[in-house]
Amino acid sequence: MPAPSAPAPLDLTGDVAALTAALIDVDSVSGNELALADLVEGALRALPHLSVHRDGDSIIARTELGRSERVILAGHLDTVPLPTTPGSRGTVPSEWDGEILYGRGATDMKGGVAVQLALAAALTAPNRDLTFVFYDHEEVEGSKSGLGRLVRNSPELLGGDFAILLEPTDGTVEGGCNGTSRFRVTTRGLAAHSARAWMGENAIHAAAPVLARLAAHEPATVAVDGLEYRESLNAVRINGGIAGNVIPDTCEVEINYRFAPDKSVADAEAYVRALMDGFEIVRTDGAPGARPGLNHPAAAAFVAAVGAAPKPKYGWTDVARFSELGIPAVNFGPGDALLAHTDNEHVPAQAVRDCLDALRRWLAA
Hints:
By secondary structure, this protein is an alpha+beta fold. Helices cover 28% and strands 25% of the residues. The protein has helices at 16-24, 34-45, 106-122, 146-153, 203-206, 208-216, 265-275, 297-306, 319-324, 349-364, and strands spanning 51-55, 58-62, 70-76, 95-97, 100-102, 129-135, 162-165, 174-175, 179-188, 192-193, 221-224, 227-230, 232-240, 246-247, 250-259, 280-287, 311-312, 329-331, 346-348. The strands form five sheets. An eight-stranded mixed sheet has the order 1-2-6-3-7-18-8-17. It has a four-stranded antiparallel sheet with strand order 13-15-9-16. Strands 4-5-19 form a three-stranded antiparallel sheet. Strand 1 and strand 2 form a beta hairpin.
């Protein structure tokens, strides 16, 4: 059987929607970003106005024009796994239905990556210095993040005054993001034969108050720098029992807390521990949120250029990593975030073009 042909080089100067389709056509599920990273690197190295650095399957390209401000435009190359439902359209390769583009990553976030690449080619003399960041392993655990690796290995290449993460926002600026933490609450009992249940203590039954407290919890809406972030606190998984005839002696409830960016990870942990007072609890994961930083001059200028009122970002995104570096950051990209990871993931071609036009107007003015 002949080996599959190598994908064609990327055309950064044509229709950005067609470029999006070309990116979708290269399968880049997390851990399989090599082929796409090679294409991106090759396209960027062909642009003489950029300096290019590669670390694994992550690439940084920068202008060095001595401008008074530097803006970072960032996006991840990987996608979640391909859908397995028969007839799914949000898969690989891409598929056009009129002016609607279907395929894995159409919204999350190859439309945004296409905009980055088109800007990298078109803006040879932007009004601000630009850093383009393309990174691997975003859709998996944070320890594998390509952006995290770049922060550790090449922090000097990630300095800037303002960052834009081109995650899907339907063309609206979404400032900052909520933080996220996970906890494991464990209840314990005494194993026994279910025919003689009175000889044991049921750990699953003992978890009922945990669930009751979560069900009764009223999530807060917290104003941070003019944007209102809605929190959520939920049981997301429960595990207990070993057989149908055994009283379980252990039960674990996994809790996810999405908290406003006015709180640290430690603040969030203290809050959940207080709510779960009296229970055995361990924090298993945590990432801080990011304040919107919309009062920064570059951020304010960008919001004014886009023209729509900014919104909060409820989910966690890598703007938090830039915030930890002291760089104000927002989310702004083409497509509806509610379609991300779905079996019919798609993006209107015009949404990608409009995103490119908005950023090009601002950066070329």
